[in-house]
Write a structure and sequence with these properties.
By secondary structure, the protein is mainly alpha-helical. The chain has three helices and no strands. It has one domain.
Length: 97
């Protein structure tokens, strides 16, 4: 957050202080200029935010599926252990009879 504030402050300093305007060869933006900036940048920002929402939703879905598959693997491991115990029990019963 500090970096954003510092960056915006430096840009404003360069664009609106006469001394820096001369050094960097910039001019102050008028209200019409700012309106044009918003007209062209706002759709890009909105699209970028929409893509972030979609990416987060997709990541959340993939994470949920991964957790479900891991849970299923854990169940499979437990079932395999139970099956081995039953197999050993059956072998024990056969060997004693």
């Amino acid at each position: 957050m500090i970096a954003i504030v510092l960056s915006v402050s430096l840009h404003c300093l360069i664009c609106y202080i006469g001394f820096f305007e001369n050094i960097f060869g910039t001019v102050s933006l008028s209200l019409n200029d700012w309106i044009l900036v918003l007209i062209f940048s706002l759709p890009v920002i909105l699209l970028d935010e929409l893509l972030k929402v979609i990416a987060r939703a997709k990541t959340a879905k993939e994470l949920k599926e991964l957790k479900l598959s891991q849970l299923s693997e854990e169940h499979q491991k437990q079932l395999q252990e139970k099956l081995e115990e039953l197999t050993q029990l059956v072998e024990l019963v056969r060997s004693t009879s």
